[in-house]
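Please review this pair:
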Amino acid sequence: MDSFELNKIAGAVLGTLLFVMGLNIVAGIIFAPHRPAVPGYDLPSAEEATGGGEAAPKAPAVPLPELLAKADPARGEKAVAKCKACHTFEKGGANKVGPHLWGVVGRQIAEVPDFSYSATLKEHGANGEKWTFEHLNEFIANPKGYMKGTIMAFAGVAKPEERADILAYLRTLSDNPEPLPTE
């Protein structure tokens, strides 16, 4: 092989490398990633969800006794369908992921035997607290927010009217129903 052939091979290799390097530079210009000034995504805030600017005025909260006076246990029975995955509602019902809810209104917190409650519920029960309408209303609205440390994984029921219907239904699950609150 003479030097002319070696020069052609070396030229081909160097030409190919030069072509690939040039292609890389052009591709980097065309497809360059543009980094944002602030990494991450902007999520809508609560103010933006209401239309931005000034927050919309909240409707005045209706007191629980008024909600319970208008509540319908039949609607509440339909609303607890989502609860039946974890709770039973029959007298003497078995405990599932959550305790049975027969007679829950007026019952001491963490009182169901053979159920392993979270430490926070045991603490409330040890203090003699009972499941009043007010306690249940707040707990059903946001279990983890109301009793920090609870292991109940339910997100909660946002609508006060639906919670009142559920409470009215839970009230019927007793041999001696608790009286409705008057104030």
In short: The chain has eight helices and no strands. The first helix runs from residue 3 to 30. The chain has a mean pLDDT of 86. The radius of gyration is 32 Å.
